[in-house]
Amino acid sequence: MAIALIPLFVSSIYQINSYRDEVTSLIINRQKEVAEDKAEELDLWLRHRVDELAKISNVYPELKSATINDVVPILQKIQRQYDGIERVVFADKTGNSINDQQQKINLTDRTYFKQAQQSDSIVVSDIITSKTTGNKNVAFVLPLKNEAGQFIGIFGLMYNASGIETIVKDIRVGETGYGYLVSKDRVFLVHPDAEKVGKMFEELNPSQLSLFQETVFKKDNGEVEYVASDQTERIGFYQKVPLTNWKLVVTGKKNELFGGIEASVITTAELVAVTIIIIVIVAVFAARGFTRPIEKINHLLSQTRNLDLTYDPSTDRELNSFSYEFRSMADSLIKTRQLLRDLLSEITTTANVVDNHSRNLSKLIGDTAISVDDIAHATDDLAKGASEQAKDSEQAVHKLSDLSEKIRLSVENSDTIQSEIEGVGKANEEGISAISDLKQAVKENVDATSNVGLQVDVLDKKSKSITAITDMIKSIASQTNLLALNAMIESARAGEAGRGFAVVAKEIKKLAEQVSNHAEEIENTTSDIHEEITKTKEIMESTKGVILRTSLASEVTEGKFDKINASINRIVGKIGSLSSSIMVVNAEKDIVVSSVESISAIAEESSASTEEISASLQQQANVVDEIAKSAQQLSEVADRLKHTLEQFRL
């Protein structure tokens, strides 16, 4: 019988070891999941701010040409416009910087400034303490380069590191397990023990430096078992944060994580050993009458070995009916089975974890639905803005066409004015010719008058006629002078279009002045005729023809000046039409400007809607990522539960 118990003992030991290995794997995998999830969450936090810095630099391209003296308004506008930014910093290539609070600091000793001088991409600093506020920040720095690719300074955003600290400090493993964050230079960035933050790893735990250099500081991820600075044995899992090469370590006390397992294994082993010993003793000393109790206990042990923990009250009653020795063995066996039932209780706890993940998944799916609704609304706004923009654009096209037609009419009017001005020039030339003839006739009249001294009475009458004619000429000259002055005034009002006409009007004014001067000469000549009245009587007949020619020349002159007057009137009319066209052009121009302003406003609305869509899509992407993680966790936990529960019959 003792030999028959050996397989039972071996099987029990094997199952105990298998259970210990499985639970150990679950604990390590749990640490791994926490480290991976939190490292990814840290990386997303960092990348979101890198993307925000790149976006701001694109919105404000003038930063590349800004200087310390004129950049502050831009920095202050950025700080007001974007939430979560602690400080906005600008520095030139010498390290002289200024922030949105107009505080000036030299950054040449800062590591991130040195890195930016040698980099073409955004630089992310470790967690640093601000010299101006004392807060813990992370600097996101964009190197500024000129067209030749030369370093000319930096533009940076300072974010409070509380978000990173919250992510790390929320890590819990067991009762006292925690997480901490170290930089690639082995400096503690975040740790539950604030005194360790900012110190080197080798300064706090030099004995474990070699181990960490071969694991944590060398590899991207993995398991590490070490002795902490407080001399406690710990086991943990480390994971790299991709963007910064920081290492997140999730750790817990070894005796705390595995103490329960070891105690359970030892207790179970002891119970199995006690049971076997009891069975051996009973087998040696018991009589054949004890076969039934032994078989019953053996059957129950076999059920336990096969993970059949079904509770049967009748079995307990039957075991209690045995003798004292068998009852003791039965009690031990019952306790062993009860211990296994407790293990199943832990599995039930794991099932509750699955349920919690399911709830989180449902919540995340709800958030995704909300994000999709936001995207739909933003898209509708964008479509409306685009439609209104199209209408205003069409209206602008029609107004511009009308404006073009008005401009064409203005050009035609200008051509007409040019033609009229040419007519005035010709009439002016003819007027000059007529006046020349008049001068010649007057001269001949003067010569003839000297020979008609005897025709005093007739000459007296004719001299009066001459005087009347000269008065008329002076009147015409005066009117012509007035018309020329008015024409010059109207041409000045017409601006550039009336400049040519102003030249003609000026020449006409000169001509009128010349005519007036000649009329005065005629008056003087008539006075001389009166003095020589006695000599003109003999040649009065000959002077009639001269006077006739003088009269005809005067009539021709008057006709030509009438033409000039008519041309001037037509020019004035055309200038009025031109002025009206220009006024219409101006009015249409205002409408076009208004349409363009409306288009600009709609374009701004479209831009705002596009930004909303972008933000909503980013939120949706994050939610989908979280859903994927929760789904993965649910899948893995469900598989483990299924595998474990299939081994038990309750």
Automatic annotation (TrEMBL):
**SMART domains per the UniProt record, alphabetical:** MA
| Keywords, sorted A to Z | Cell membrane, Chemotaxis, Membrane, Transducer, Transmembrane, Transmembrane helix
* Gene Ontology annotations of biological process type: chemotaxis; signal transduction
Q: Which InterPro entries match?
A: Chemotax_Me-accpt_rcpt (IPR004090), dCache_1 (IPR033479), MCPsignal_dom (IPR004089), Sensor-like_sf (IPR029151)
Where does the UniProt annotation locate this protein? Cell membrane
Q: Transmembrane ranges?
A: 271-290
Per the record, membrane topology reads: Multi-pass membrane protein
Chain ranges of the Methyl-accepting transducer domain = 364-614
- Gene Ontology molecular function terms on file: transmembrane signaling receptor activity
Looking up Pfam families in the UniProt record yields:
dCache_1, MCPsignal
What GO cellular component entries does it have? Answer: plasma membrane
Give the record's family classification. Belongs to the methyl-accepting chemotaxis (MCP) protein family.
State the protein's name. Methyl-accepting transducer domain-containing protein
Species name: Heliobacterium mobile
